[in-house]
Structures are given as C-alpha cells and as structure tokens.
Amino acid sequence: MAHMTQEEYKKNVREVYRTTAILSIVTIVEVVGALMYEKYALPAGYPRIVLSIFVSVASLIKAYWIMAVFMHVNHEKKGFTFTILFPFSFLILAIIAFSMDGSNFGELLRNINSLH
Amino acid sequence: MATDLTKTPNLEPHIEIPHEETEFGISYGKIMMWYFLISDTFTFAAFLVAYAMQRFRQADSWPSSNEVFQSVPGITDSGAPLIFVSIMTFILILSSVTMVRAVQEGFMKNRKGVIMWLIPTILGGMAFLYCQYLEWTHLMHQGMSMSFNPFSGMEGVEGPVNFGQFFFTITGFHGMHVFAGVCINIWLLIGVINGTYDRRGSYEMVEKVGLFWHFVDLVWVYVFLAYYLL
Fold first, then answer.
1. Nearest CA to CA, how far is A29 from chain B (Å)?
2. Cα–Cα dist B115/B118, whole Å
3. Are B55 and A102 in contact (CB < 8 Å)?
4. CB count, 10 Å around CB of A10?
5. Chain A residue with minimal CA distance to B96?
6. What stretch of H or E contains B214?
C-alpha cells in the first residue's frame, strides 16, 4: 500500500472506530432481540423462523462490516472482491439447503409409520 | 541472542524483496492468504452444515441453548443465558479492532504504534481462550462430553449424544485457530520489535496476519450464531 497522508490516516482511523460502534450495536441488538423473542414471543406462539431470519441477517450485517472495513475488501479491485464473494454465496446457499434438508428428514422420520 | 531493547535496531531498509504487482493490484502473499482463508471457510462451513442437518433432524430432542449455556463463570451458575458468550464475542471483536489499528500504524511505518496495538490484540486472544476454557470446564463438570449429553430436549426427551460431540469439535477447531493466531501474533510482535519490517521496507506481514485474525473473528460470529442463537 502506498504511503498515506496524515489526513487519509486520520480518516481511516475514524472509519475503524465508527465500524466498531456499528458492530457493537448490531451485536447488542441481536442478543437482546433474541433473548426477548425467546422469552416473550415464542411462548405466545410466534414462529421460530422469524427469530432465525433475524439473527441470520444480523450476522450477515456483521460479516459485511468486518470484511469490508477490517479486512479491506472495500478498497480492493472489483475482480478480486468477486473471486472472494462468489464462493461465499454458494456456501450460504448450501447452509440453507442442508438445514432445510435436515428438518425435512426429521419430519419424515417422525411420521414414518403413517407414510404408507 | 537476546535483543537489547535499549539499543535502537538498524531500521534502514536494506533488503530487496521483489514485490510484483499482480493483476489484482495486490501482492501474491496477500492473495494467497485470502485464498487460504476461503479454503478454511469451507472446512468450517462443512462442520456447521453437518451440525445444522443433525440439529434440525433431531429438533424435538435437541437441548435448548438457553438452558445449556446460562452461566457466567465467577458470577452465577444459571439464569444468565447468552451473557457469557456475548462477552466472548465482544472480546474477539475488540481484539480485531486493535489488530486493524496495528495494521494502520504499519501503513504509516510507525514501529512503536504497531507494537502498542499488537499487544492488546494478543491479550484479547488469550482472554478469549481463557473464557472458552472456563466454558468447557463448566460444561464438563455438568457431565457433558463426547460420549454423554446430560441435557434433555423439549418435554424432557433425552438429548442426543452428538450435541456434545458437535459442540466440542466445532468450538475446539475454532479455539485451535485462535491459539494459532495468538502464536503467530507473538511471532509477529517479536519481528516488529527487532525491526525486521523496517529493514524490509513494508509492514505487509502485519496486514496478512491481520486478515487471518479477522477470519478467526468471523468464524466465531457464525459459530456463535449457529450454536447459541439458532
């Protein structure tokens, strides 16, 4: 990386602290939200999938900020960013697919007597 | 040979390291570190996918994470779900922040600044490992192991034995990565103190180790998500 000027350095430092604040707030909201939902909404009959989507989205937000600012992906060339993000998107698809497959398999096992 | 810290090391760049510009505009070393991280991501993703499949297949008998992980070592034994693991998450995120600051000081070729920010990173990593050790021993005292699961699922159904197997394997692999990261950071700190990177003319090694450290943090975010929140 080429030599930075004092202003660029100060700007980068500020950006890091701003990102830290964002990550902390997202983590707190995620944990408090999950606890509140577990305690109040789940017993009242709200679906569990809403909680799952909420925490998954919060984790994706955290992953974005860590990768973009801390790991510098924001400042890399577009082609390189693409080579990194492309495999990750397949991973996310795989996780979703396998989780659904697992729960479907569980359903089948539970209803094994009534299958035929 | 002990390093005499009172003498200023020879900091003049006098080693020629060929630094080729690649198509992507960054060095080969950094690209390789990124692609290694992607391959390591596949390893952890494989573990987490296997965990997700088994967990949802046995959704009835899987123990509720709020009941299993509700202690804060040293303060309380129950009634505080998710608190201790949130503290661990914060420790790791903060150590990532200090690592980024160390990398930025490296860009400015500020040797003392890099040292100042690497030390809290190493301490943060060690604190995380200590917390993980506390969590493990607490659960093992309650009887959880690779062959027995004392926690029961919904309505008292006996919990499956692979709960403990998945937990200790996945957090163990992650802890191993944190330990390796702490060791590499210590090696890096010694190199910075000795003036190796000033002689080399570039603090890029700090950046590459930083990438690994952030990867470890990211994996923890997802292990935390999978095990404690979903």
1. 11
2. 5
3. yes
4. 11
5. A70
6. helix B204-224
Show Cβ contacts of residue B2 under 8 Å, excluding neighbours closer than 6 positions: none
Q: Which residues of chain B lie closer than 8 angstroms to A84, CB-CB?
A: 34, 38
Q: Say if residues B203 and A1 touch (Cβ distance below 8 Å).
A: no
More confident residue, A108 or B4: A108
Global pTM reads 0.85
Radius of gyration of chain A (CA): 21
Q: What tens digit of pLDDT does each residue of B104-127 get? A: 999 888 999 999 999 999 999 999
Sign of CA dihedral B4, B7, B12, B14: negative
Fold of B28-229: Four Helix Bundle (Hemerythrin (Met), subunit A) (1.20.120)
- Counting Cβ atoms within 10 Å, is residue B10 exposed (0-12), middle (13-18) or buried (19+)? exposed
Give the whole-angstrom CA distance, residue B105 versus residue B114: 5
B218–A66 C-beta distance less than 8 A: yes
pLDDT(B23) > 50: yes
Size of interface A-B (CB pairs under 8 A): 126
What are the pLDDT digits (tens) for A69-96? Answer: 888 888 888 888 888 888 888 887 887 7
- Rounded to the nearest angstrom, the minimum Cα separation between A114 and chain B is 18
Alpha carbon of A42: minimum distance to chain B alpha carbons (Å): 13
The ranges assigned to domains in chain B are: 28-229
The answer to whether the complex's ipTM is over 0.85 is no
Give the per-residue pLDDT at B3. Answer: 59
**Percent of chain B surpassing pLDDT 70:** 90
Burial annotation A79-115 (CB, 10 A radius, 16+ → b, else e): ebbeebeeeeeebeebbeebbeebbeebeeeeeeeee
